[in-house]
Design a protein that fits this description.
The structure holds 3 protein chains of 3 kinds.
Chain A (H helix, E strand, L loop, with lengths): L13 H22 L1 H20 L7 H30 L2 H7 L4 H31 L6 H25 L5 H12 L1 H15 L4 H30 L2
Chain B lengths: L5 H24 L12 H29 L2 H33 L7 H21 L4 H32 L7 H4 L8 H43 L1
Chain C lengths: L1 E10 L2 E11 L4 E5 L6 H8 L7 E6 L2 E3 L3 H5 L2 E4 L11 H11 L5 H11 L15 H13 L5 E5 L7 H16 L3 E6 L2 H5 L4 E6 L2 E7 H4 L3 H10 L1
Chain lengths: ~240, ~230, ~230
Amino acid sequence: MTPSRRVPSSPPSRSSFARAVLAVLWKDLAAEVRSRELLSAMLVFALLVILIFNFAIELAPDLRPTITPGVLWVTLAFAGTLGLNRSMAVEKDRGCLDGLLLAPVDRSAIFFGKMLANWVFMLLVAVIILPLYSVLYNLNLFHPGLLLVILLGSLGYVAVGTLLASMAVQARTRDILLPILLFPVIVPLLLAAVRASGGFLQAAPFEQIRPWLNLLIGYDAIFLAVAYMLFDAIVEE
Amino acid sequence: MEPRPKLLSLLTALSTLLFLAALAVIFFYAPLEATMNYVQKVFYIHISTAWVGMLGFLAAAAAGIAFLITKNLKWDIVEVAAVEISLVFFLVAIVTGSIWAKPSWGTWWTWDARLTTAAILEMIYLAYLLLRQGIEDPERRARFGAVYTLIGGLSVPVTFLSIRLWQTIHPAIIGTASAQAQGGFAMSPAMLHTMFFALGAFSVIFITLLWHRIRLGRLAEIVEQRKLQAVE
Amino acid sequence: MIRVRKLVKRFGLKTVLRGLDFDVQAGEFVAILGPNGAGKTTFLRILASLTRPSLGEVVLAGCRLPAQAAAVRARLGVVTHQPLLYGDLTAEENLRFYARLYNLPRPADRIEEVLDLVGLASRRRDLVRTFSRGMQQRLAIGRAILHDPDILLLDEPHTGLDQEACDMLDRLLDQVAARGRTVVMTSHDLARVEDLASRFDILTGGLLRASAHRQELRGNLLDFYRETLAK
């Protein structure tokens, strides 16, 4: 939003951008390897959601392929907000966000670093709950198409989620705000992800799945670009 | 206190007259629709309020962009004004939509793309108001508000598209009803006149309300300023 | 090194800084003194490029803020009220992370050096979460000088430090100043800064009301401060 600030005397090169992104990503992963707070909370929560679904809706064997995508994505979306909140709260706690902003790196590098870390966490959660779900409900979820959908869907989710979480943590009501901000704007993403996942699980013809994949890719592209442009406006006082 | 501008007083009077006139035209000029009778008259209100909701939605997004570029807080006042008006009018549009839906499709609610998108837009604007409530610093509140209207503004057309797609692939539950959603009845010229008159009247009402709300925001700001001066 | 002209900062309708002028030559050590709520922290955050000025001109090392902030950040070290450290990383990992962000040429050596300077070499592999407030503050100072900045900005750095850590900080600041670096520090502890800074500026009501060099005061900082506030 402020192009003037993007022209320092020595323009940051592409390699320094990548280095900063990787530094932030490394930092988040290293901290998580140490504490395991974020992943364990996300995982336990995800399993609880699946458990609750099990009692709330009858997952009869013949219905499973149709209901599973919905259960899966609701679980991922709920667990995701836990992770996003935590990931940004860490930056706010000891003033670390200021530390990042003081560093001579592009703001969007900070955004992408945080976003990639969140993406990794979401994918890890998915990687763990997929086999569990497969075992629990005797349903093979290891379909390459489904994995692609999870990859695309969680990318758009963390792009918007990281952006909104960085706003939410700066509000007085930070603990409750993120899901309220996030869920209405990710409706198209969830719809597309659920439909595409369902298509793959029910072995629907690819012609029927393709529009949903296109929608997912379009959503990811739009919101990655938007998040890239707007992150400055959020962190810049 | 700055006095109320003459033009605004004039517009307010005009809006009142236009609103009454629109009601008169709807009830006395527009012919009765053959199958739906009086219920069909809600259609004119429905389409007009939805139109105003759209106007407010677009105005809010534009004001958000203007704020992020200029960082001038006056755009924030415009943005809030537009969001609030849009929120109320979309709510009326949804309710009148339900009133229309009950007799024609036998259900209060359908997951029609327009109806659902309007409902999600309401959610986005409610979230927007909650976000603003949680932030004290006016400058930051304006910045975050602008960012969220932009994200919301971009997601709404995508939402609409996705729901459309959902319904073309999955046949609508109420079958042909969704095909009737638009122009499900033949519009006679008199009906068209009524519709356009109502649209015009509500556009004027929108402008008047927006102006009033912006003025209110400015006055609130002045009051804040006076309070601070008094403290110092 | 630092030039500020007619700086105004408003938060919404509230004006915190009202047309402040401020100059610092290279190598000066300036202490900004003032009562709570005078706008010291806000002023320092503006110098640190963390907050935008509403009006006025701020030039650091020839770069105008906020437009050219990116160019000056590499030459700026900042200590704020918060340590800016990650609790789930060790002292060494925290510094390594910042070394990467600042793209230091030989990070391992420099980290070693800094850990020694702040007296945390023995705790290098401990999580910052387990550190006391004083140790976190020491590491925060280490983080701020990691890239050997030309300008060091400190916001009440003595707060929360015990006597020993305070003395360590003073020695460190003396070293930094002796190497010709520019230091700007806010404080409300007159006794602490009296022997430290070379110049004392008093900020109150959003303006710098008075400025005096150490030689001029001859040990009467407290009187100078009281007189200025009384005006």
